[in-house]
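for the recovery benchmark. tokens below, seq after
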């Protein structure tokens, strides 16, 4: 392959690995924040430990992406076939794990809603902190609380009157959080796929320049 084409692939490989590196850092930061500060979310949404433990999966994936992105950047800069092959194998494994995780996330979304409805009947105290933090009320809306919504369904600095009650149900808030995570995950999958394609092209180009088949 011409040197110009090789240079283009090299820079594209570096660019996509930089994106993977940054995405890993972002996921790692979000995961650590949720693990440290997400106790209220855990108590409201998760009677099932499997649901909240998904946060630790996010941390693990973030750390893996962070390290893999660094490895890919090194492989691209140094044009090292061994690093590129290792990078491809690791990204492929992580790619498959993320696909499985996406399927589990869809299943856990339903479980999270069921767990939230259960805690609503058994532990209103946890809901107070959650509703204040996310400015929502009930699962589907204020009518879920009977006969009257708790004061946590209103802003702290205002009197809790019907015109001040949060009208958005927490189900909508939780769903939005899931979709944000899903969108980020999809973007990362696309970046990983492109990075794998360019790593294969670069691996082959380096082999041709060194006289390998």
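predicted aa per position
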């Amino acid at each position: 392959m011409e040197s110009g084409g090789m240079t283009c692939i090299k820079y594209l490989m570096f660019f996509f690995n930089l994106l993977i590196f940054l995405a890993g850092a972002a996921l790692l930061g979000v995961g650590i924040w949720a693990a440290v500060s997400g106790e209220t979310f855990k108590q409201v949404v998760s009677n099932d430990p499997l649901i909240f433990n998904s946060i630790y999966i996010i941390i693990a994936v973030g750390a893996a992406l962070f390290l893999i992105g660094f490895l890919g950047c090194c492989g691209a800069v140094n044009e090292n076939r061994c690093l590129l092959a290792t990078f491809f194998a690791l990204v492929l494994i992580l790619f498959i794990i993320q696909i499985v995780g996406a399927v589990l996330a869809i299943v856990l979304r339903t479980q999270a809603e069921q767990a939230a409805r259960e805690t609503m009947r058994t532990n209103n105290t946890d809901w107070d902190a959650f509703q204040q933090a996310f400015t929502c009320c009930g699962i589907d809306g204020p009518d879920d609380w009977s006969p009257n919504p708790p004061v946590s369904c209103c802003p702290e600095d205002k009197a809790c009157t019907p015109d001040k009650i949060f009208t958005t149900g927490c189900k909508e808030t939780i769903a939005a959080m899931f979709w944000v995570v899903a969108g980020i995950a999809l973007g990362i999958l696309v970046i990983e796929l492109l990075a794998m394609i360019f790593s294969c092209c670069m691996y082959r180009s380096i082999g041709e320049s060194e006289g390998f088949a």
